[in-house]
Amino acid sequence: MQFLTNPPLLFCDEPTSGLDSFMAENIGQILQQTAMRGKTVICTIHQPSSEVFALFDQ
């Protein structure tokens, strides 16, 4: 996935919905890396695995 613009805020409504655990963790890692680069990332997520949950910091 590529961002077409450089948004300061990224809002994701259940980005892991319908994905298997491997892909959900990959998406979580991508969102974490995006946040570490200084972007604000806001996500809603329901019943994440412990691995995905550990990627969220605040």
UniProtKB/TrEMBL annotation:
| UniProt-listed Gene3D superfamilies | P-loop containing nucleotide triphosphate hydrolases
- Subcellular location, record wording: Membrane
Record membrane topology: Multi-pass membrane protein
A GO molecular function annotation here is: ATPase-coupled transmembrane transporter activity
Cellular component terms (Gene Ontology): cytoplasmic vesicle membrane; plasma membrane
Entry keywords, A to Z = Membrane, Transmembrane, Transmembrane helix, Transport
Recorded protein name is White protein
- Record the organism: Dreissena polymorpha (Zebra mussel)
